[in-house]
Write a structure and sequence with these properties.
With 259 residues, the chain is of the alpha+beta class. The protein has two domains: 91 residues, Ubiquitin-like (UB roll); 123 residues, Cytidine Deaminase, domain 2 (3-Layer(aba) Sandwich). The chain has seven helices and 14 strands. The longest helix has 14 residues.
């Protein structure tokens, strides 16, 4: 269940009229790591195991799937709880400085992310044409049935230039990206020849997630912030934004876009 039905009053030219709507589900997901609470995310509750692990991977709590010894998701009265156990000490030498992200919710960004990741250089070998970029953006829109019903979610997909592999949707663009990250991490999916296509604004914390998982191409129907553009140019990510029905912006490309 990813949406609920309500009857509201809609105001229009004829005054107020009763109107049935669909509202996207919002549920807290608390992530526990080795018995210690990490964060509570607000999400639809879909694919909580991928979301929890993706968040931990994105924020450098885990670096290898073999470190995870147990993963359990429990449903409580008012929330979901993901309990993750690891064989390593994820808290050792951890700098817990946080900054409020642009996610308008429970997004967090640990201080060492920018410093560490900006030194990384992605060299994934994938080539994409402008026509393929536009086609994937159209398919993302066509698959967005939850958005069509509720107007309340973001969508992301892991793709090859010709195929959409994983499609994820959630109330936050961070969550949709983290679910893809978590699935790739747990299922050992190779990503150096893949792309992420998304509906959300590409702020720095989104680009950091893409870099950490190792996806070399980020495409969004929305725009990118200045910080994310600078990070893309430092790390070698092909960053495409503002994708419309027949146009898009290329913020950075080290040679992956074919004419």
């Amino acid at each position: 269940m990813d949406s609920l039905s309500y009857e509201v009053k809609q105001y229009g030219p004829n005054g107020f009229t009763p109107t049935p709507i669909r509202s996207i589900r919002e549920v807290p997901l608390t992530i526990m790591l080795n018995g210690r609470e990490v964060v509570t995310l607000l999400c639809t509750g879909k694919h909580p195991e991928y979301l929890a692990v993706g968040f931990l991977k994105s924020d450098a709590f885990v670096s290898d799937p073999d470190q995870i010894t147990d993963l359990t998701v429990r449903e409580q009265e008012d929330r979901l709880v993901a309990e993750v156990e690891t064989c390593n000490d994820p808290w050792k030498n951890r700098v817990m400085e946080r900054s409020i992200t642009s996610g308008c919710g429970k997004g967090t960004n640990f201080g060492r992310n920018v410093t560490t990741i900006s030194r990384r250089r992605l060299s994934g070998d994938v080539r994409v044409t402008p026509e393929q970029v536009l086609s994937l953006a159209r398919e993302l829109h066509e698959r967005s049935t939850l958005y069509t019903a509720t107007r309340g979610c973001h969508n992301s997909s892991l793709c090859t230039p010709t195929e959409m592999l994983f499609f994820r949707e959630d109330i936050g663009r961070h969550n949709a990206i983290d679910m893809i990250c978590g699935q790739c991490f747990l299922e050992d999916v190779s990503v150096d020849d893949k792309m992420i296509v998304s509906t959300g604004r590409v702020a720095s914390e989104i680009l950091l997630k893409v870099v950490r998982i190792g996806v070399p191409v980020m495409i969004s129907t929305a725009v990118a912030t200045s910080f994310s553009v600078e990070l893309a140019r430092k790390t070698g990510v092909t960053l495409i934004g503002n994708v419309k029905h027949d146009s898009f912006w290329v913020y950075n490309d080290p040679g992956r876009i074919q004419d």
